[in-house]
Design a protein that fits this description.
The structure holds 2 protein chains of 2 kinds.
Chain A lengths: L2 H9 L12 H34 L7 H29 L7 H36 L1 H7 L2 H47 L1
Helix pairs in contact in A: 2-3, 3-4, 4-6
Chain B lengths: L7 H22 L4 H18 L9 H19 L16 H18 L3 H11 L4 H8 L3 H20 L1
Helix pairs in contact in B: 1-2, 1-3, 1-5, 2-3, 3-6, 5-7, 6-7
The chains are: A mainly alpha, B mainly alpha.
């Protein structure tokens, strides 16, 4: 008997502990968690857009043209990111868990590629446009705000944007690991199918 | 039975019947870590519950549940932010045979973990002693393709374990 057959003969005798009772509330809270996870990002971004648009609306007619342009640019960049997130969510929703595994896997791989594009290309572009638009507002802030408030806005933005960029960089090794895994899977599968 | 007729009682029946099998399959995706496998099994049955209305009797309920189990595991692997824990060897000091068995289990789980995702799914279903025709239906492949793959995967696993 080879190693595999020996392992197989013991497979069903694994000690897995007691069968937990079926708990409907546990299952329902699990399902709620799955649904919530998908909508956090677009919800937070949409809320930011609403705040920005509210800020735009309360500006007096004669206020700086540059100020309005900056706020619109920030809102548009976030809106673009929301659209991509919703598109990616709709791709995820179209994944049918009850489908044949090979079909599901092909769709999952396509979804992963889309996520990588969003992470590596779309998000950095959105972030750069957002930061540039924000800094284009600084002259208007300087004119309209007190020195203390202006310094607060300036330095808090530096902290927030630096944190965002650092988080983005921290996530890169994990993303690269996943891409490497994905490429490995495709190569290996091709090899085994030959 | 009409699809809308599935009740809590039906679900409990499926849960009791397939929990252990699904747990063992999930274990293969998390390097043998039993606690992660239990969480993942809970996710699988949550998905089964969510999709129960869509089950039609053109396929066997076991095929349908295994598809959901394997696909949920694949999805979990992609979404998981944590690295896999390594297999915990539970050895009773006085029992040398048990210790040896546990070490072999650890090696085999590590070897399974190195397989490409779809091959991992095939071999875990094979370990559950499912007929190859049913594995083919779960995977959406031809019977002959599954048969050839199983042979190759067994060879690969044996080599990996011997290393």
């Amino acid at each position: 008997m080879n190693e595999f057959e020996e392992f197989k003969s013991k497979w069903e005798t694994q000690d897995l502990g007691q069968l937990p009772n079926f708990d409907k509330s546990n299952i329902e809270s699990n399902l709620l968690k799955f649904r919530k996870e998908k909508y956090w990002t677009p919800l937070i971004l949409l809320l930011t857009i609403v705040i920005l648009l509210f800020f735009l609306m309360i500006q007096p007619e004669e206020s700086f043209h540059l100020l309005k342009k900056g706020i619109i640019l920030m809102s548009v960049s976030l809106f673009v990111r929301v659209l991509f997130e919703l598109w990616s969510n709709s791709m995820l929703n179209r994944l049918e868990l009850r489908e044949a595994v090979s079909l599901f896997y092909a769709k999952l791989t396509k979804f992963e590629r889309t996520r990588r594009t969003i992470h590596f290309i779309i998000t950095p572009i959105v972030l750069i446009v957002y930061i540039l638009a924000f800094y284009s507002l600084l002259p208007a802030f300087k004119l309209n705000l007190s020195v203390g408030m202006y310094n607060y806005v300036l330095w808090s933005s530096v902290v927030v944007f630096t944190t965002l960029i650092v988080f983005k960089f921290i996530s890169i090794p994990r993303e690269l690991k996943l891409i490497k895994h994905l490429k490995g899977q495709i190569n290996e599968s091709n090899f085994l199918n030959e | 039975m009409n699809k809308s007729n599935y009740t809590d009682a039906n679900f409990t029946e499926f849960y009791d019947k397939y929990y252990q099998q699904v747990l063992r399959i999930c274990r293969g995706y998390v390097n043998g870590d039993i606690e992660s496998a239990k969480d993942l099994t809970q996710d699988v049955f949550s998905r089964v519950w969510e999709n129960l209305d869509t089950f039609n009797e053109n396929s066997k309920i076991s095929t349908w549940i295994y598809r959901i189990a394997v696909n949920t595991c694949l999805l979990y692997k992609r979404n998981s932010k944590q690295d896999l824990k390594s297999y915990q060897v539970h050895s009773k000091e006085e029992d040398g045979n048990h210790q040896l068995f546990e070490l072999r289990m650890k090696k085999m789980f590590e070897a399974i973990n190195k397989l490409p995702d779809q091959n991992k799914s095939i071999i875990l279903l094979e370990l559950e002693s499912l007929p190859q025709k049913e594995i083919a239906k779960i995977m959406g492949m031809s019977h002959s393709a599954v048969r050839v793959r199983i042979l190759r995967i067994k060879e690969t696993l044996s080599k990996l374990v011997k290393k």
